[in-house]
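Design review, sub-item: ligand-bound model
Attendees: FS, YL, KQ
YL presented the inputs for the NDP complex:
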Amino acid sequence: MKFEIKNYIAGELIAPIASQYLDNFAPATGELYSLVPDSEAQDVALAVESAQRAFPAWRDLGAEGRSAYMLRLADVLERDIEKFALAESKDSGKPLSLARTMDIPRAIQNIRFFATAILHAHTETHDASPAMLNYTLRQPIGVVGCISPWNLPLYLFTWKIAPALASGNCVIAKPSELTPMTAYLLAELCQEIGLPAGVLNILHGLGGKVGEAIVSHPGIKAISFTGGTATGSVIARHAAPVFKKLSLELGGKNPVLIFADCEYDTMLATTVRSSFTNQGQICLCGSRILVERSLYERFRQDFVQEVQKLTVGNPLHESTRLGAVISAGHQQKILGYIALAQEEGGKILTGGKAVKPEGCENGWFVEPTVIEGLPYDCRTNQEEIFGPVVTIQPFDTEEEALKYANSVRYGLASVLWTQNLSRTQRITQAIESGIVWVNCWLMRDLRTPWPLALRFKTSSKESYPLILSKTFCGK
Ligand code: NDP
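KQ shared the predicted structure:
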């Protein structure tokens, strides 16, 4: 009998009403190791009723009361960090070291950040004396739906639920059915700290079934969604006719622009990370690496050499840098794109194949893959692969680099490597992406939802990070 994950509704861990379950596999071993509720509309209805009942008291508890619950939740999560990291690694195939140092710490940070931010929240007042004082009142909307993907399971799940809860909303949340385990464990912690029943409800199951039921339910006033662009468009179609508030964080095909004057060693090490962290399954990974021609040969050689040092292996081993990709289907999708790249004239410089590390022979692994020789507008360079696959291309001028960078329909993130401040100003204004990292990658300050991060060399030995807002840079 496999372990049965439960839904969390009205403070209770319960089976789905129809008693239907889906299989949950460990990507590193292919083992079927738990069953996930295949929830449907009737489970959503139950959760919405419970959230609606809980809402007035949660709203009226005030910021301090809500913050206290959330801080307790963050504390018990921190106490259990190793248990959660192990569960995340098993459920998603990612290296345990990554879950321990990035996923779970960031989940704790998400909860703490919004639990304390709400204590300092303020609104504007416009004094049109003597006749009038206008002020903005921010109120919770009621019941909110949060839907998150599988790549950073608890990290993105908590990033959605924490601001909603801190603001006084009650939540119906759905993690991806591919990675349900840490959301389930979080429900156990909610019980432990005595979170009032119905404030947070966690439903498991398929996007097209329980996900759509959440999006369509008239009692759910807003949807916060992170996932694929195609899914985002389906959700927008459901939400538009009923004017539901929507926040959509979708896919990316992010460019990395490397100029010859960059701080080379930091650039090289960071570009390896920005390409292959989490097996390239981060929407913010850079997958199109554009290199100034005078640096191209040196970069190509060093980059391939560094990538070949990355160990693809058992996620539990400390030396592992790349674990498994999320599913057999996703592995096939990635390998399909590698085949397409070759059809399009690309040359594989390293990687390109599935691998079966020792002890994980039935898991779904793909070598870190570097491809060159492709035009900027081919499908490989235009479509999101979401795996350990990058292309490298030379460019001659800033204009050419920008043309390639801006050629895709995505506009999520980009990375720029240069020491030239004027060029930085020009490119960060001209590049069409919501996030621009300059001389760094994945540095985040949760106060800046769309950060522009800059990192410049201050002496021959040290660099320091600076996070500037786009407003500062005149964008
Ligand atoms: P999906 O869009 O397939 O799924 C995301 C979530 O939505 C899952 O919980 C999924 O459930 C659910 N879902 C699927 N269909 C529907 C529907 N019709 N109605 C409601 N919910 C639905 O994305 P992936 O899980 O494959 O995640 C990878 C994608 O996420 C990539 O494109 C990546 O770029 C993007 N992403 C974006 C980020 C950002 O901040 N911009 C961050 C991280 C990832 P189920 O799993 O059951 O299908």
